[in-house]
Amino acid sequence: MDTAIQSSPDDIKVLAREQYDSSDHLSPSTVPANPLDLFRQWFTSAQSTVHEPEAMALSTVSAGGIPSTRIVLLKQVNNRGLVFYTNYNSRKSREMDLNPHVSLAFYWREIHRQIRVVGRVEKVSREESEAYFRSRPLGSRIGAWTSHQSAAIAEGELDQQINRIKDRFGVKEGDVEADIPLPDHWGGWRVIPLQVYFPLIVR
């Protein structure tokens, strides 16, 4: 016998929303042989319309098979893959060390498009990480030294860590530039696509 599911005042209900009407009509004759070429076309189009089109959901899997998803920022894409940067001691990095298979998802609401990527990861070279690190604002470079991702910190501890790093590298109040080296625990990951999907968004 079927049992009806009773609703409660705590239930969250999805109300009527905008309906999608995608104008994309993909076929073998219109899609480039290399799917990353189409990705670049779509990403370039999104940059003028979408807020932070580089935001992507990264899914990894723990040693016990438990998935975990978080948002990271795409920093480079070429024929070798898609690159993002993070702390190598973070949970996501530890999981990618154990299992190099990941998935990415981009969702661009403003232009009714999404892209999914399934692939494997590898660390980028120290030279690539160094070049990108040098391009970051001073505060972000200091943050890379103080960031202990996925770990709890006591109240006020982060400020103390920042001050210690500033003292260590001679950063003075009001400085906008300083020689902050790349930490050993920070760098890039490259997602090498095995499959790329361009699913249509439907009602």
Tell me the distance between the termini.
32 Å
Q: What CATH first level of the domain at 35-136 and 182-197 would be assigned?
A: Mainly Beta
CATH topology descriptor of the domain at 35-136 and 182-197 = Pnp Oxidase, Chain A
Mean pLDDT over the residues? 86
Q: How does CATH name the architecture of the domain at 35-136 and 182-197?
A: Roll
- Biggest sheet: strand arrangement: 2-1-5-6-7-4-3
Can you characterise this structure?
β3 (76-78) and β4 form a beta hairpin. The mean pLDDT is 86. The chain has a domain at 35-136 and 182-197: Roll (Pnp Oxidase, Chain A). A seven-stranded antiparallel β-sheet has the order 2-1-5-6-7-4-3. The radius of gyration is 21 Å and the shape is globular. Helices cover 26% and strands 27% of the residues. It starts with 34 loop residues before the first helix and ends in a 6-residue tail after the last strand. The chain has 203 residues and is α+β, with helices and mostly antiparallel strands.
Brief synopsis:
This protein is of the alpha+beta class. It has helices spanning 35-47, 91-98, 126-135, 138-146, 157-168; strands spanning 55-61, 67-73, 76-78, 81-87, 101-108, 113-123, 186-197.
